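Re: the 781-residue chain
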Amino acid sequence: MLSLVVVAALAGPPGAVLLRDSAIVVTRSELLGTGRTRLAEALQVLVPSFNFPRPSGAEWTDQVRPAGFRGLGSDQVQVLLNGKPLHRSALVHQNPTFGRGEVAVDLNAIPLTAIARVEISRGAADVLTGSGSSTGVINLVLGDDLPDTMSGNLGFVTAGGVDTRTGGTWRHAWDGGLAVQFAGEYRVRGSTDRAGADRRQQFFDGDPRNDDPRYANQVHDRLGDPETRDASGWVQIRLPVRGADFHALAGINRRLGESAALWRLPGDDGTVRSLYPAGFLPLLDSRVLDATVRLGATGAHRGWDWAIDAGYGSSRLGLAVHNTVNASLGPLSGTSFDAGTLGSTELFGTLAASRRLRLGLPRPVGLRAGLEAWSDGYRIGPGERDSYRYGGVPIQDGPRAGEIAPLGAQGFPGFMPRDSGHFRVEGYAGYGAVEIEPVRHLVVSGSGRAEWVHRTGYGLLGAGQVAARWAPLSGLTVRGSIGTGFRIPSPAERSYSRSLIPVVNEVGLYDLLVPPTDPVAQSLGARPLVPERSHQRGVGLDLSGREVSFSADYFEVAVRHHVVLTEKFDATAIRFFLEGQGYDGVGSVQFFANAGEIRTRGVELRAGYESSRGPLRLRLDAGFEHHRVEVIRVDSIEGFAGRYPSAFFSPAEQARITAGQPADNLTASARLTRGAWTAAVHGRFYGSVVAYGPSPDGTLSQRLRARALGDVELGRTVRSGLTVSAGLQNILGTLPDRLTIGAPDYAGNSYYGIFPYSSVSPFGWNGRFLYARVVWRYAER
């Protein structure tokens, strides 16, 4: 089912066939055949080195979830769309879950309906396609010659909720070569919930409602998938004119989402009991808009193939909170607030040329060169005033009546004006590559990239790669690559700001997340971010026969100056030190920092078998990946913050990196076709992971055991062009280990037993999923 090929240049004009390391190609039919309705979930089923956990209770991360590759994070792999970088989401993941401190591409913003295939590199990062990669490249190829189809999925989850997808494609070509491809998709996912009963005392001491079964031991919180609605539309246009091929692409995805914060007890200081006498659950709403526009042309002139491309991508998150209150406004508080906006834009332009030269070698020498300019922007817009301000109304009743009430919207206080701003980073790059075959069957390529980032002080950055492929026998290929790379910190990492004022013991102090260039952070010892530097190397072997294919790969990636989000520097001495520096009222500070060096090493094995015997066709596939991630060096921070190394690069953050993703992953599938019938079985195995827990010393950590899951599907072609299928995912209803530490009077790692499952689980905790799918190919070309 998964093809193993050597991929040509991902970002070059036709004919510019320069060597790239071997890649995994996931086809459109394989993605749709998983029964998943979202791209990241489908890739996790098919590619063992790809990880997509399901955080819950992590604010907006629930709705825009990051993915990992080969044990590293989402910002260590470069995502391309038709060979050019795909813009990142505007969301900064700042909660203590997988992806903390990262700014990721939202893979699920790309509809499955529009995708022709996905190419995943397995060698060193490709310096020709950009500077944002350490572990490899994932190229999403949108189809411009897709069949005219309508398709739909309808599924039901054991943990509650439905999951539907409806999509269609249409293509038309006119005389003269003009061709237009449309793809559209609409998805709805209902919220799921695995939260446990809340056994805490809900009301003040002596209140008879504490013994009323209508209020005691009820499920108040949510643990599971959020409710989301996605609508996507994509169009591609191609037009040949006078020897050139002009192309354009435009796409948009709009998502409306709702997830939950933590339940507010009736007796909490943040509860206005005249509005919520029995407590309340704040709900977080998002309005996510992703848009992409690409224009370009390719052609040939005097033996050179050339390509010109320009692109724009943007991500905008509108944040709101409802079913909430600003307790400091008292009974007159609103119950819904606009919490602010986050925006990200990426603009690029490239010019590339390539050709083949015949120099008497076994094959022509390939040359390629290019220039690139880019500009990335980030914007934070403040929320409405009542979402963050202090209204001056004290706590109205209860044993703490008259004391200072918490300020800001419960669940998510809005961004303050001090956080707002528009930030931009610009750069220019040049790259080149050469490919030769010095002796028959041995192909060697080398590529390099130089980049200058405007007004950052980074100087001239460079990266390079050497790759080789030796095919001494038919069906046998040995390959290897070694390279260096760099990743420029995003504008979000350089400029993100978040200000809160929690009230503790009748005192309200600023809780700040500030840029590392902010004077408050620099007074503690923070330094401006520098680019991450990476070294990658790998070797691989491919074997193929008439019915059998096999590949084996070893990879190693080391990343220096790894960027992390620090923990809060919140010791009492920090407050007094900052007061001495002239920064009064600051209780805690955190910021992004270059914190150390990490390394991932591993192996990946893949095997496939395909055979036809009369009316029967059988396809078997298996993949295995093992990796080990290590923190091999922790940098130090100078200044006053140097007294608190555990807050700079905390043990919890190191545990998320080294043990927060399964180190052993196995996928296996079998597909049998006979006439109009098709039966498929998928198996998945996820190794153990560590849920570090909320305790900074690791005493609440818990290892979650390995788990195996299975899926089945049966389909039939009813008539020409119409196929119906039904399937069951996670047939045994497998769930991760339950978190075992927590009681009504002790939070533990399960939050008083309310959250029995950890967000570190690589497959979530929804249980079984029953679905049906219909595909109608309504036109033949």
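Residues 1-20 have pLDDT under 50 and may be disordered.
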